[in-house]
Write the structure tokens for this entry.
Amino acid sequence: MDDAVTNILLSGVGGQGIILASDIMAEVFLEAGFDVKKSEVHGMAQRGGSVTSHVRFGRRVYSPIIKQGEVDILFSFEQLEGLRWINYVKPDGVIVLNNHRINPPAVNLGQMEYPKDIPGIIRKRFDKFYLIEGTKLALEAGNIRAANVVLLGAISKLFDMEEILWIEAILGHLPPRLHEVNRKAFAMGRGQIED
């Protein structure tokens, strides 16, 4: 192992399972033998507000916070939240974005417009951009709340770690009645990113 630290910033809206996803990621990286640090900001999470989580892993990690311009992978569960954080991403960074929109209160109140073509804006700035149908695939798998697991399936393809580590971490955080739908959601997410 070299001394490189991988910086992953998760972003989304309260209720999308961002904290659970970051817990699962941290567990996978620990099981794979890395030092891991994690930090999260809930904001107005209960009211659909912005939620972020920083996950850093490597041979030795000293701080849980990622500085602006040092994000290797932006893992965003909602389009506007992805756009909000792109200035934190390195020029050669990777964006994994859920193709899903949740209007913030200001849009619902008519005070502002939801930006048009966010995927197009991001695609112009970053070569490594993956638009994932997380919400749609979760519905197909049988539970819209499994969108975070679809997205974990997609991002798991970016790391050289055994698939079983991801599956065990996911199932370990969920009750047995949700195992089957989440296994399916994870597999569907992995299918979104080609080898």
Q: What stands out?
A: The domain at 5-190 is CATH 3.40.920.10 (Pyruvate-ferredoxin Oxidoreductase; domain 3). The chain has a mean pLDDT of 94.
